[in-house]
Amino acid sequence: MTPSSRRNRPDAGWKFENSYARLPEAFYVRLNPVPVRTPKLVVFNIALAQFLGLNPDVLKGDEGAAVFSGNRIPEGAEPLAQAYAGHQFGFFTMLGDGRAILLGEQMTPKGERFDIQFKGSGKTPFSRQGDGRAALGPMLREYIISEALHALDIPTTRSLAVVTTGEPVFRETALQGAILTRTAASHIRVGTFEYAAARGKPNEIRALADYTIRRHFPDLTTNGNPYLALLGAVMERQASLVARWLMVGFIHGVMNTDNMALCGETIDYGPCAFMDAYDPNTVFSSIDYNGRYAYSRQPQIAQWNLGRFAETLLPLIHEDPQKAVSMANEAVSGFSDTFRHYWLAGMRAKLGLLNQEADDGALVEDLLDCMHRYGADFTNTFRALSSGSLPEASVFKTPEFKRWFERWEARLKRQPDSRETSRRLMNTHNPAVIPRNHRVEEALEAAAERADFTVMEKLLGILSQPYQDLPEQADYHLPPPPSTQPYRTFCGT
Question: Same domain, yes or no, for 147 and 264?
Answer without folding.
Answer: no
